[in-house]
Amino acid sequence: MSHEHVEVRTGTYHDSVTLMQASRSVASVDGVVAAQVAMGTPLNVDVLQGMGFSLPAGVGASDLVVALRTDDEAALAAGLAAVDAALTSRSEGTSASTAEPPRTTGIALRRNASPLAVVSVPGPFALAEAMDAVAAGSSVMVFSDNVTVAEEVALKDAAAAQDVLVMGPDCGTAVVGGVGLGFANVVEPGPVSIVAASGTGAQQLMALLAHGGVGVRHCLGLGGRDLSAAVGGRSARQALTALAADPGTELVVVVSKPADPDVVSALEHQAAELDLAVEWATLGPGRPDLTSAAERVIERLGGHTRLWPSWGPEQPRSPGHALRGLFCGGTLCDEAMLVAGELLGPIRSNIPLSSDLALDVSGAGRWDAGSDHAMVDFGDDALTRGRAHPMIDPSLRDERLAIEAADPRVGAILLDVVLGHGAHPDPAAELGPAIEAALDGASQLAVVVSLTGTPADPQGFGRQAARLAEAGAQVHLSNAAAARAAAEAVRTKEPS
Amino acid sequence: MRGLLDGAPSSVVTVGVDLLAQALDDQAVAVDRVDWRPPLGGDAVAGHLSAVLADARRDAANRTALDRLLGAEAELVDVVPASEALGLQRGTFLHAGPPITWERASGPLRGALMGAMVLEGLASSPEDAESRLADANGVTLDPCHHHHAVGPMAGVVSPSMWGFVLRDPVHGGMAFCTLNEGLGKVLRYGAYGPEVIERLQWMARVLGPLLQQAVRRRVDTTGPVDVRSIIAQMLQMGDEGHNRNRAGTMMLVRELVPELLELGAPSGDVSDVVRFCNGNDHFFLNLVMPACKLALDAARDVPGSTMVVAMARNGTDFGIQVSGTGSQWFTAPANTPDGLFLGDFGPDDANPDIGDSAITETGGIGGFAMAAAPAIVRFVGGEADDAIATTRRMYDITLGEHPAYQVPVLGFRGTPTGIDVTAVVRTGVLPVINTGMAGRVAGTGQVGAGLVSPPEACFTQALDALAARAR
């Protein structure tokens, strides 16, 4: 007889990655049918309810919820033991030193000065930690999302006064002096520095440059909002000034999601005054995509652009009519919508290019775009509140892949996979079987993957590409090429 | 840009998801991990915390408040009755902690008020006093803190009680505290029996006037006694200035005995006074408290400052005041101390936390200087290492270190001083207070001593108020 166990533990806190790892190891215990160990954030409550667990009233974001469904009582006991083992092994690991560990960034910096801090606490608490770093005269990368615009502005103004840089909030990627912070690909040192209001956009650019033989010196993330009118390019201004004074930087590439035109033109003006060589890869309708920006950079530095590599079936097979993009990277999603949109027309999204295309994805996996083309960014704030980023925990996207594949109207599914430090250790091992399952019996369907990575990335770029291709996906290094292929697969098909 | 682009960072502080720290480990970068946890109050305080931390005035305001606190000095300038020092009128009684009414007053505060009514001749017996207090007939209660005064335990001050007057020559402040009555069955612990009243009468008749003459003579001849200097010395002699004041008491007596001997007073009175002071290891506490009060009053009312300027308890509520929020109290039900008990007393006999003496911790000594007082560590529960760990932990919630108050065992590091509301909320580390324990039932007296912490809600409320004023 099946056993269901829901337990709320108060006064306990673990970060979402630790909990995801715990959930996974508990789910693998014999006799455990379903397991979720998570903080009781609204999104997680939704997920738990979606799994059929009923929760007591009043569960809040600071409560730890342990929910297990098992075959029998013995399995329940084993599952709970696995929960405890997963949650305690970590605390033993971190309390090895005899001195009490610092509880805030300010305390850590008071004890030992560091030039740099990386903040990834839940967004509402990120300002406190980042402000500590700024006050101590350290630059800071704010990985956390869900930080308000007002907080971002206050933080960046304080940083300018202290002559330090705030990278973020919601900054996924940076490389400083060869050290990758957050999600970062392993790149050779070189003459190009990147200023990026876009994490996956910067990664795509670094990957393309690496394949073109061009190395990278620094990649300074700004956070996706820095080039908005509200934030006004505050960090970008500081970054350009600093890079102009950096003797190792020959050429700067500014990469961004669709940005405020006035902010971009002010930065262009600043770059001209600084006499700084800059290539602009600020995405937007009618503007070049990241691949063509990379080609320009490579040519400018005297290199040669090659044909960007791809793997898997030449022609996607017998497609239906609707395109679905399921993305971990927001900029990759933006770029894919711009590229595919030129071929297909309007694409609905949770990060739409215009407001009339908005797709409501609240309620985790339960939206329906009908017969329309749609692309979803699973890394968007609304889908990461209280959860790990999909580049670490792709489970929400994997679930959605199965739902879309089962929809006879869907002809092509476009997915991104991003490698490098911080990302999933072996994404193809998880996504490969999911793609095989999706293609199994779905003769109308094509799967196209945009694979961002460099040959030196820890996951093994060639191995990842081969595994995904073997599962039946067409795999591209160029995200723009992947979007074009997916769009071509459904072009000219009429809704049936 | 401060060396960010010069090369690989020498080390990186990480806070949050451990995966990002691991990625740095994998690249052989030195990582300093923060053991982060959600702040007191959880998600509900996040917006307030950000608003306060983003307040552009905060850094400078806290520096100003801390500079004033650390720069304040304290001189003993006089000994006078409360009626003279504070203009206290018959029928008005001061008490420890935030404001309270007779209805909500705890046993020890009620007992002390009953005794003071008898002392002032406003009641014929404790029972008579109790009924008059219950009727509130011609009786006014007000916190000591509202009158530049501090009261130990129940902290009851009535017009005829004598006390020390301290002055801060740097900022010009004045602070008052009654003379310490000794231990056991005493008014401040809520006892009001005949022996308590008789002792208070002797203090008003003999002790107060003789100390007054000695102190005034001292001021006229060699100048006022430097109380801050004695506190600095006592910390290096094994006192922490709250639960242990033995060295401080001896140093005070040493300062005043020559003056007492030269007053020409009856030798029996002089020896009674010296014997009384010497026989009470806490005699000097009533000078430490107003010295701290002077320093914290100097730090009041700095807009934008998140520094705590008073922690005080009335036996029912714990209250704090903050520099940036004026005279507003942030209160919550007081906790009951944890510690050791006298005689047959046990935890059920103890009253919740009471007294203005937490002004010592607010000023950076007492529990904050625990590492300086190995002898009391066991008394308040623990080993010497615990004392050092306690003081070390307090650095995490304070704005600075006191240059005058140093701890030998910590390499003469200054004591952690200037409690920061935001640091308490963020770390969840609460101030440690060394304290006496009063009996729950009026008339009992002292039942023990131990450690106590303020309720978290005092700090989250203060944060709310600071956020409402943030710019």
Q: How would you briefly describe this protein structure?
A:
The complex is a heterodimer of chains A (496) and B (471). Helices cover 38% and strands 20% of the residues of chain A.
Q: How does this model look, in words?
A:
The complex is a heterodimer of chains A (496) and B (471). In chain A, 38% of the residues lie in helices and 20% in strands. Chain A contains 16 helices and 19 strands. In chain A, the strands form 5 sheets. A 7-stranded mixed beta sheet of chain A has the order 13-19-18-17-14-16-15, sandwiched between helices. In chain A, helix 1 (16-27) packs antiparallel against helix 3 (73-94) and helix 5 packs parallel to helix 6 (149-162). Mean pLDDT of chain A is 89; it is low at 90-98. By secondary structure, chain A is of the alpha/beta class. In chain A, strand 4 (116-120), helix 5 and strand 5 form a beta-alpha-beta unit. Chain B has helices spanning 18-26, 46-53, 58-71, 82-86, 107-119, 126-135, 194-221, 227-235, 246-261, 267-278, 285-298, 359-362, 374-377, 384-395, 421-427, 456-469; strands at residues 11-16, 30-34, 75-81, 92-95, 140-143, 162-167, 174-178, 225-226, 308-314, 317-322, 330-333, 338-341, 354-355, 398-407, 413-419, 433-438, 446-452. In chain B, the strands form 6 sheets. Chain B has a 4-stranded antiparallel beta sheet. A 4-stranded antiparallel beta sheet of chain B has the order 11-10-9-13, with helices on both faces. In chain B, helix 5 crosses helix 7, helix 8 (227-235) crosses helix 9 and helix 9 (246-261) packs antiparallel against helix 10 (267-278). Chain B has 471 residues and is of the alpha+beta class. Chain B is globular, with a radius of gyration of 23 Å. The chains are: A alpha/beta (496), B alpha+beta (471). Strand 4 (116-120) of chain A pairs parallel with strand 1 (11-16) of chain B, so a sheet runs across the interface.
